[in-house]
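User: Can you help me understand a structure? I only have the sequence.
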Amino acid sequence: MTPGRVRVTLQPVLAGSPPQSGLANTIEEIRQYQQALGYQGRSPKEMAHDEDQRRADEDAYEQRVQEIWSQTQSGASTGGS
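Assistant: Let's start by predicting it. Here is the structure, written out as tokens:
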């Protein structure tokens, strides 16, 4: 589908229709589809590395915010006059 506006149509579910599969079934279907295409997923080592990198990025961001905050004259805005 190309980017842009779309039209969504809602229709009532007929009584007696079988329920949609749950989240666990949907996740399993996705996993099976990906495996059939040869996708093996990320290893625990790769996931841990990514998590470590995310934490380091967050720490660096927080440090930079603290540095900027410490350079302000009042340190905080009171919101009053």
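Now, to help you interpret it: Residues 42-72 form one domain. The mean pLDDT is 88. Let me know which part you'd like to focus on.
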